[in-house]
Write a structure and sequence with these properties.
Blueprint (H helix, E strand, L loop, with lengths): L3 E5 L4 E8 L2 E4 L9 E2 L2 E4 L2 E4 L1 H5 L8 E2 L13 H9 L3 E4 L5 E5 L2 E3 L1 H20 L5 E6 L5 H13 L3 E7 H10 L6 E9 L4 E9 L2 E10 L4 H20 L7 H20 L2 E12 L2 E10 H13 L2 H10 L9 E5 L6 H11 L12 H13 L7 E5 L4 E5 L3 E6 L4 E2 L1 E7 L9 E7 L9 E8 L12 E7 L5 E7 L5 E2 L11 H44 L6 H20 L2 H28 L1
Parallel strand pairs: 1-11, 11-12, 13-18, 15-19
Antiparallel strand pairs: 1-2, 2-3, 2-4, 5-6, 5-7, 8-9, 9-10, 13-14, 14-15, 16-17, 19-22, 20-21, 20-24, 23-26, 24-25, 26-27, 27-28
The structure holds adenosine monophosphate.
Adenosine monophosphate (AMP) binds next to helix 6 and helix 7.
């Protein structure tokens, strides 16, 4: 049976897992690490992914893409994209459809294409590990991802050659992994997920392998990076106080400070004090300046306690939405690297009045849950049923620019709602419909998913035509719309142009391009390998001729020398066919020479 894997496609790190005979296994990458940095780079025309990409970032910043997840399904003009553009060294460009794309190695690439490079790497790790082709996966997304962001994630999977069996929410995946261990007991679980850039809280009911999401809330601009920034400002303030130089104005100094700030933060999760040293960080007339500071956990906690406490706002909202009190929660699960910080654990514990469950690795639990769901969907494990909810209300714009929700947030998906539309003037032949997602009262404050027109309405007095439009959210959280003219019973065609994201045709084209490139990549690799072989054979044959001097006929050594020259000539410009042929000729004559030499030796 085909195995399906679970993938946590993270902002900073990604992780892949699978379910094998009652056991959840995290798959290590080629370097043996259980998580892979979500970093993609282009260097000398070759794509690099993961650790190797991250390591070369310092010397190749403009062609190293970090945190692509933040650009998934996001328009170029959006606040998110603009803010992202200011914080990264690579360039964002506006695509024809208005999306934010990325310039990498001189090419313009969509975020799903970049994510696909990460997914391909994870797929390859899984294939290496399992010794079989892997084509199916469940991929996780933040609970707060909207329709366009989910669709973009699905597109990334398709581009990477993966059939995405389901998109599930990260906190749901975590609870699923947890739920699998607690068969039979009904538990109310809170998943507190504080990652590098986002915070999510989800309340679920777990009962013998069945997870039902009760509510979810979060903040897409709150995470570990805010803590890093606070540490950076503090260190920079201390440095400026001593030396009168601001480190934040200089790009290189800033980058070094950022890395040190994060490292200090990590160290202070286990140590209570650390030394931050940045030699030669700045320069003035009196010479080079070094940053050397002692930084303690107490200082760090004083600096960022309000940031961590800010997570409690969404926590309270999620509890209120689920009509629960903090004390009703049986189990608190921590997800995301930032929950390793003792202050985070303390604030969570104080709020809920009980210790969070730390039996899972916060970096791996999401991929594990995804693997569990993948095994269920591919029929290897039928104990698990996952009920997810839509994180945002779905609705339409009605008179006066008001947003009228048809499917309220926190409704279990898949779900469907219908609405009857009619005309507002006599003989009106079309009705425009504006589909939105969000929680604000006015349409303009929410996210447009699509605009379309119901057309070909037969002439009739106003208010008479009745067209039923069905809005569906599928199990991946992606919206589909269909319409029916109740008068004629005819299906109305609805052309939904997603406000953001890649069209089906674009995805197909990218997949085809990738296929084509795969072939040309394979050819390039073959040529390179042939050249390596040729160079090695030329070298050893030349040594052999020298060694065989006096032992072989002129004729044989001339033949070998001729074949060497022939092969050498092709090294620069030859194609694979010519090279292979010349290589074979030299191989034959070199063997002939060897036979004579060894024949002679045996005679002697
Ligand atoms: P994630 O997005 O879940 O991979 O979380 C990444 C965030 O967790 C980054 O901001 C990291 O700096 C942070 N992080 C990872 N390990 C630790 C640690 N030991 N202590 C504090 N923060 C950490």
């Amino acid at each position: 049976m085909k195995r399906a894997i679970g993938i946590d496609l993270g902002t900073t790190n990604s992780c892949v897992a699978f379910f094998d005979k009652d056991e959840l296994v995290v798959i290590p990458n080629k370097e043996g690490s259980r998580t892979t940095p979500s970093v993609v780079a282009m260097k000398d025309g070759s794509p690099l992914v993961g650790n190797i990409a991250r390591r070369q970032a310092g010397t190749n910043p403009e062609n190293t893409v970090f945190a692509i997840k933040r650009l998934m399904g996001v328009s170029f003009e959006s606040e998110e994209a603009q803010e992202h553009a200011r914080s990264v060294a690579y360039h964002l460009v506006r695509a024809d459809n208005g999306d934010a794309w990325v310039e990498l190695g001189g090419e313009k690439l969509s975020p799903p294409e970049i994510s696909a490079m990460i997914l391909r790497e994870l797929k390859a790790s899984a294939e290496d590990y399992l010794g079989e082709e892997v084509t199916e996966a469940v991929i996780t997304v933040p609970a707060y991802f909207n329709d366009a962001q989910r669709a973009a994630t699905k597109a990334a999977g398709k581009i990477a050659g993966i059939e995405v069996k389901r998109i599930i929410n990260e906190p749901t995946a975590a609870a699923l992994a947890y739920g699998a261990e607690k068969e039979g007991e009904r538990k109310l679980v809170a998943v507190y997920d504080l990652g590098g850039g986002t915070f999510d809280i989800t309340i679920l009911e777990v009962l013998g392998g069945v997870c039902t999401v009760l509510s979810t809330a979060g903040d897409t601009h709150l995470g570990g990076e805010d803590i890093d920034r606070a540490i950076m400002s503090e260190l920079s303030r201390r440095f400026e106080e001593k030396h009168g130089i601001s480190l934040l104005d200089d790009r290189t100094a800033r980058q070094r400070l950022k890395e040190q700030a994060e490292q200090a933060k990590h160290e202070l999760s286990s140590a209570i004090e650390t030394d931050v040293t940045l030699p030669f960080i700045a320069m003035d007339a009196s010479g080079p300046k070094h940053l050397e500071e002692k930084f303690t956990r107490i200082e760090l906690e004083a600096l960022v306690s309000s940031t961590v406490e800010a997570t409690l706002g969404p926590v309270k909202q999620a509890l209120a939405d689920a009509e629960l009190k903090a004390s009703d929660i049986d189990e608190i699960l921590l997800v995301g690297g930032q929950t390793r910080m003792p202050l985070v654990q303390r604030i969570v514990e104080e709020f809920f009045g009980k210790k969070p469950n730390r039996s899972f690795n916060p970096d791996e639990v999401v991929a594990m849950g995804a693997a569990l769901q993948a095994s269920a969907l591919s029929g290897q494990n039928d104990d698990i049923l996952l009920l997810d909810v839509t994180p945002l209300s779905l609705g339409v714009e009605t008179g006066g620019g008001i947003f009228t929700p048809l499917i309220k947030r926190n409704t279990t998906i898949p779900t469907r709602a219908t609405e009857i539309f009619t005309t507002s003037v006599d003989n009106q032949t079309f009705v425009p419909i504006h589909v939105l997602q969000g929680e604000r009262e006015m349409a303009e404050d929410n996210e447009t998913l699509a605009r379309f027109e119901l057309t070909d309405i037969p002439p009739a007095p106003r208010g008479v035509p009745a067209i039923e439009v069905a809005f569906e959210i599928d199990a991946d959280g992606i919206v589909h719309v269909s319409a029916r003219d109740l008068g004629t019973g005819r299906e109305q065609s609805v052309r939904v142009v997603a406000s953001s994201g890649l069209s089906e045709e674009q995805i197909e084209r990218i997949v085809e391009d990738a296929e084509r490139l795969r072939e040309s990549d394979a050819m390039r690799r073959e040529l390179a390998e042939l050249k390596n072989q040729a160079t090695a054979l030329i070298y050893s044959s030349e040594r052999a001729i020298e060694a065989a001097e006096g032992l072989i006929d002129e004729e044989i050594s001339r033949k070998v020398a001729g074949d060497i020259e022939n092969l050498r000539d092709l090294l620069e410009t030859g194609d694979a066919i010519d090279l292979r042929e010349a290589l074979q000729l030299l191989e034959e004559s070199a063997y002939q020479m060897a036979e004579v030499i060894y024949g002679k030796e045996n005679e002697a």
